[in-house]
Amino acid sequence: MKSGRIFVLFLMLPIVTVETGVFDFFSGFFDNDKLRPFNSKGFGKDLRKSLYGQHIALETILKAVSGFMKDSNPPKPLVLSLHGPSGVGKTYVTKIIARNIYEMGEMSKHVHTFITTYHFPHKTQTESAMYESQLKQWIHGNVSSFPHSMFIFDEMDKMNPHLIEAMKPFLDYMPHIDGVSFRKAIFIFLSNAGQDKIVNLALDFWRKGKVREEMQINTEEMETHIYEQIFNDKSSGFRQPCLIDQHLVDHIIPFLPLELRHVQWCVLAEMASLNIIDLDVAHTVAKEMSYYPPEEKIFSIKGCKTVRQKLMLYIDD
Ligand SMILES: Nc1ncnc2c1ncn2[C@@H]1O[C@H](COP(=O)(O)OP(=O)(O)OP(=O)(O)O)[C@@H](O)[C@H]1O
Ligand SMILES: *[C@@H]1O[C@H](CO)[C@@H](O)[C@H](O)[C@H]1NC(C)=O
Ligand SMILES: [Mg+2]
């Protein structure tokens, strides 16, 4: 009789612990999805080793992220907006950032990626209203349980202006919203907005025979150029209730179009991951990509996208 009661008690133990949060404590204890101790030297090394041909973005991201991670009391969340043509490393760099911040890198449950046309394909007004409240809840819920959460918005230029408006309070200098502080969160916006300006600047530079790595875009000039294009594009989500205008975006970061040599490095990186190295093949594959403008053929049309698929055609196992 007595032993029976103890047995029942024993069975109930897990239920009790779940309810009292002891379970939370233990799962937290064994949880390996947490922050890494931030090491800016290591971050710089990783960027230099992995990201090709983006000296401006590299330096800005290195300084901005390192400064932010080292600040124990930042006044606002870090908000970066990455711009440039397709396939030149925007999405890729977010993975590099994530693996330097979280133990589990881009797979961390604290990294939230939204692709505008997929997650918020706003059709009706009711739907947009639903996305708005959902997004607010998600950001609020996740940041309240993990302050250093990261939110990546891809195709930001296609985002509904109302949705951007809804997000604005989170990006601002606010002590807290409903008791939650957002100052340790990181927001990264990705888009092709401004790409024409960026490409034209790079092209002019090249035509003048200057060294690409010396292209120091005076940030303000760059920003003005990008603003102009964004603001003239009537369909752009950036256009309306100006994230940029209100200085909620901390850094507007240009990504340059990639040249043949960068594509070659991308091929070599892919080869290395397959444990093969062959400079001739790397050169051949890089040359197989298409380049523009038609006369000079300097920049890769797809950047380093599809390099892997092209490479597969040249390796026989
Ligand atoms: N600058 C670069 N350095 C090294 N690898 C790169 C670079 N750019 C692109 N790559 C390689 O090409 C792949 C595709 O690039 P990525 O997805 O970052 O393009 P993107 O700039 O986000 O383009 P889109 O605007 O189309 O989304 C990356 O996963 C990476 O392997
Ligand atoms: C956190 O964000 C994810 C989307 O990335 C969402 O599914 C989840 O419900 C959010 N969590 C909270 C507590 O709001
Ligand atoms: Mg991308």
List the defining traits of the structure above:
317 residues, alpha/beta, Rossmann fold, 5-stranded parallel sheet, two-stranded antiparallel sheet, 7 strands, globular, binds adenosine-5'-triphosphate, binds 2-acetamido-2-deoxy-beta-D-glucopyranose, binds magnesium ion
Fold topology:
Elements (H helix, E strand, L loop, with lengths): L1 H19 L1 H9 L9 H11 L4 H16 L7 E6 L6 H12 L9 E5 H4 L5 H21 L4 E5 L6 H11 L14 E6 L3 H13 L11 H14 L18 E4 L5 H14 L5 H10 L2 E2 L6 E2 L6 H6 L5
Parallel strand pairs: 1-4, 1-5, 2-3, 3-4
Antiparallel strand pairs: 6-7
Helix pairs in contact: 3-5, 7-8, 9-10, 11-12
The structure holds adenosine-5'-triphosphate (ATP), 2-acetamido-2-deoxy-beta-D-glucopyranose and magnesium ion (MG).
The site of 2-acetamido-2-deoxy-beta-D-glucopyranose has 5 residues, from α7.
Description of the structure:
The chain is of the alpha/beta class. It has two domains: 40-254, P-loop containing nucleotide triphosphate hydrolases (Rossmann fold, 3-Layer(aba) Sandwich); 260-312. Helix content is 50%, strand content 9%. The strands form two sheets. Strands 2-3-4-1-5 form a five-stranded parallel β-sheet. The protein is globular, with a radius of gyration of 23 Å. The model is unreliable at 13-21 (pLDDT under 50). Bound molecules: adenosine-5'-triphosphate, 2-acetamido-2-deoxy-beta-D-glucopyranose and magnesium ion. The site of magnesium ion has 4 residues, from helix 5.
